[in-house]
Amino acid sequence: PPPRSIPLSMLPSDVEAMFQQAFTESGVATGRPTAKAWVAALDSLRQQLKKCTVSAMHVYPGHLADCPWCALDNQGVIYFIDLGEEVITTGGDFVLAKVWAMVMASVAPPALQLPLPDHFQPTGRPLPLGLLRREYIILIEIALSALSLLLCGLQAEPRYIILVPVLSAIWIIGSLTSKAYKAEI
Asked: How far apart (Å, rounded) are the C-alpha atoms in residues 31 and 67?
């Protein structure tokens, strides 16, 4: 098993054998346990569970001397967070087969009637007048790219610094005129 996890050997030998049969190659040859066998084995295991004396959140198979969950807690692995809630058991009269029969007997809710696409009549509205045309947007993108290249080139030739305010003005004008476009988005 992975580090800091519970080993399969913590289960009673009959349930451990079922896991081995179900999830290893031996199940292919001999056949995997049936659902009925699983229900019977797990119901039997459930009836043999012990409550931990340290944490109300821990229950474990009755054949074990110590709580395996506490051992993991002591290693710093916390699987169950005790919120101080009291756990109320339903008693020993729970039978999975009866509950499953009740689930199967329940009636599913009716299917939702989804609206069809042809029931919608969308209406368009014109774009705001201040939206830039695509050509201007491309021009602004080119100017910004040129500004980026210029700033990189200024490290080699500082005398071209005068172009920075000019290109910045172009960028500011582009930003101001695109408010209508931003409002549309």
From this structure: 33
